[in-house]
Amino acid sequence: MALAGDIAASYRRPGAILRRRLGAADRAEARALATCMLACFLIFVAQWPRLSRESFLTGQDLDMLLAGALMGWILIAPLVLYGFAGISHWVARRLGGRATYTEARMALFWALLAAAPLWLVWGLVAGFMGPGPVLDFVGIAALLAFVLIWAGGLRHVERG
Known about the structure:
Blueprint: H1 3-10, H2 14-22, H3 28-46, H4 48-58, H5 62-94, H6 101-128, H7 133-158
């Protein structure tokens, strides 16, 4: 199934989609890294409308704002996500989980990628409407989707 179809299906059955996205064990780590980088890139792109609005309203240089977001989402966020996935897997292992570190990382990275379309909507709302209840609602929906997909995927791989 195509990536977009898997993202949509993740909202209904995250564990089964994650298991299929993991695929063969020999390329799982490369697949996890590619998923992480794609998710971070999409979230970086989602920041553009918000940063453009901020640049216009404050007079700051847009290039500098974009460079900061690029460094944050493409260089720093993957490192933080790898650490966070390791900690969550360590906790799951203490609670009886049976997944590998790669499977736990993929659960986190896939949830981030599956929630990325909502983050893109959040970026558009932030750029065109600015702060307000609609932005809060979309942000909460994106965060909730991420957490639920991650929890479903992690539970699926940790149970074996």
